[in-house]
Amino acid sequence: MIQKEMFSLHLMKFNKKDFITFAGIKTSNNMKKTWAIFTLMMTFVLAQPIAVQAQNWVGTWATAVEFTSPGDMPASSLSNRSVRNIIRVSLGGSLLRLKLSNEFSTQPVEITSVMIADVLGESWQTDVQTTKYLKFSGKQKTTIPSEKALWSDPIKYVLKAGQRLAITISYGAQTPEHATSHRGSRTTSYIIKGEARPKSNFDDSEKVDHWYNLSALDVQATDVPVVAVLGNSITDGRGTTTNKQNRWTDFMAESLNTNKSYGVLNLGIGGNCVVRGGLSEPALKRFDRDILGQSGVKTLILFEGTNDIGLSKDSEQIVKELIEAYQMLSLKAKNKGIKVYGATITPFKGSDWYSYFHEAARQTVNEWIRNTDCFDGIIDFDKLVRNPQDTEKLKSEYSDDWLHLNPKGYEAMGRYAATILGNKP
Questions:
Q1: Distance between CA atoms of 290 and 166, rounded to whole angstroms?
Q2: 9-to-5, 30, 31, 368 alpha-carbon distances in Å
Q3: Could you please report the per-residue DSSP string of 56-116?
Q4: C-alpha angle 339/293/235, rounded to 5°?
Q5: Most buried of 93, 193, 224, 279 (most Cβ within 10 A)?
């Protein structure tokens, strides 16, 4: 810091031979001047906005952004419309910033305003008194270039742990044909014509279960661990109840925050693979952005591989490639000071992914996860949710479709994962 450097230079001028008494302490004349300068500088520093003084951002919420196909776009374009997205944060705070992404779009997106407000209930309604407008480089309006993302200016806001937050984005005339979004929000977004205001009514809005242009929400905090999860549809929340926020990561966040503050970031994508194929960019390609690009991550949970196995025509080859990928991703994370937990792949007998060879691959990968020294810890989801009488199958009370779990199963997973991480922060 400049102030620190200036203070150090003044200290170098200290004359040991020229002592006087200052405030009851033997001090040099130069030191007396230095103390005055230091006092002045500290007055200046303490007078600065908190956003200037503190830089320790940590993630309270994030999602994996994707290319938006025509089937996941609104009935009409986003142009001259407003979208109220609803999210549930993990960590509270008093100073926050929002990241918007246009990374999967080939045209700029014009934004006329972004509002945040506390959500009332489970619909679009907000507590109008909590509404605040975000700014970008000091302005409400902004344009995000194609294939780019940007952060809002920091804003003071009373954000409570585990609360729902409405983020209302009003778009200008210029919007991409294919937005940057997250398909599997499991949460309803509300779209109306024109620019939204704090008291705008969304009763007659178009309703879609996607988030548009949202990427991450940070708060400023110290000594708060952040857990990021890299996963597929089981992490993304397939089988959960729309608007109920009952993914396994939601239950984990709730449990972790009972006694200590934790940030939990869900970077799951439905249909995603680790190595190749599947939906959206595979984990190997999206890892730097979706995991290493998050703020304050201290722990990573790797819980992906089901789709790689289910889509494979050579089970032995996919086992080899998955293990190599896990090793590569784990090493990249550890090089950034992140602890890595490997999670075993859950059973899928009864689903279309099941075959003798696919099951053999799953078992082989899981045994490697349990016995490797590649990870700092293991979360054995397979052992937790499998049927003791048929270990290739989910417990019936946990199953949604024999591949994905239901809310009861996800709650068991989240509570269990929290006990593992809580014992090993």
A1: 22
A2: 6, 12, 12, 56
A3: -EEEEEE---EE--GGGS-SS-STTEEEEEEEE-SS-EEEEEEEEE-TT-SS-EEEEEEEE
A4: 65
A5: 93
Contact 221, 58 (CB under 8 A): yes
CB contact set of 131 (below 8 Å; sequence gap of 6+):
115, 116, 117, 198
Give the homologous superfamily in CATH for domain 225-423: SGNH hydrolase (3.40.50.1110)
Reported confidence tier of residue 34, pLDDT bands at 50, 70, 90: very low
| Distance separating alpha carbons of residues 247 and 235, to the nearest angstrom | 7
Q: Which two tokens stand for residue 116?
A: 């945040």
Find the distance separating the first CA and the last CA of the chain, reported in whole Å: 31
- Assess whether pLDDT exceeds 90 at residue 35: no
| Residue ranges per structural domain of the chain | 2-47, 65-215, 225-423
CA 121 to CA 139: how far, in whole Å? Answer: 31
Which two structure tokens, joined as six digits, stand for 128?
């109008």
Residue with tokens 């007055």: 43
Q: Give residues with Cβ within 8 angstroms of 8, minimum separation 6.
A: none
Can you tell me the distance from the alpha carbon of 90 to that of 227, in angstroms, rounded to the nearest whole number?
10
Strand pairing report for 189-193 and 81-88: antiparallel
pLDDT level of residue 424 (50, 70, 90 thresholds):
low
Query: At 84, phi and psi to the nearest 5?
Result: -95, 105
DSSP H helical segments within 301-355, as ranges? 306-311, 315-335
**Confidence band for 423, pLDDT divided at 50, 70 and 90:** low
**pLDDT, tens digit, for every residue of 349-376?**
999 999 999 999 999 999 999 999 999 9
Name the CA dihedral angle for 305, 282, 187, 56, rounded to a multiple of 10 degrees. 100
